[in-house]
Predict the 3D structure of the following.
Amino acid sequence: MRLTLSGRLLLACTAFPGLVLAAPFAYVPNEKSATVSVIDTATDSVVDTLPGGKRPRGIATDGQRLYISEAPSSSLVVVDLARRQLLRSIRLGESPEGVSVSTDGRLIAAAVEESNSVSLIQAATGKVLADIKVQGKNPEHAVFSPDGQWLLVSAEEAEQVDLIDVAARKQVASIAVGRRPRGIGFLPDSRRAYVACELDSTVYALDVTTRQATATIKTGTFSNGIAVAPDGSRVYVSNGKDGTVSAIRTADNQVEATIPVGKRPWNMALTPDGRKLYVANGKSNSVSVIDTTRLENIGDVPVGELPWGVVIR
């Protein structure tokens, strides 16, 4: 008998109270299928399919709930993982996209394209605490620093990333980068960040303290998604046109390897131990799994249509 994710969780928790499962799950929003595929990272297979609202794009999780941006309703959809059902829908501005959750799980940030803003939401209640205007047009990602002090915001029509002071709930600076900044990732100390600039096929290393770019790194064509190793030793960048992922050493900002994946790789996520990287391939309807020790693609997992990204908890 094949158990669904919820059945497996229930069986595990009933048999072993307080059990922490060894292998986390990867959640993949499928924009065209309007579903979320659930991948067991121990077996690299899809073990369940969850509701994702209509046209799910940005996704984040606090371990208990999924937070998914839904373009047609201009909302943030909240999915209860234990119950496998929609919990609530939070109205935002038109065309919300990237979503992130603060390290302490208390706050959610959603980039809202049409209003050129970032919505800051209280996770426990779903209350929108602030709608913070940013300089960049059509913001795509709003990413919390690990210490929760900052949000870095990228936008499709920009040559900078905008820095939001979370406590003050306002933009306090912009950092010049290349054209069309996309994916953003902080190093664990919150002082450095990396931004992929699609039209320049370049990644910018940023000093958040001085609010300046400290290095530029040429990657593959149309660099997009960013994922940072848990120890901060590497940054991974998806290259949308090439169908590859670049691995960058943060010690010297050199490209260490270029790894073939599927068509139009987009957003990505690492397992908590950093040993596997999961890459959403939008035009291949798959997720590539990269062994980060060998820096090799070890397999592709079929998912729904037009996967937008991955989140792992």
Remarks:
- Residues 5-15 form the longest helix (11 residues).
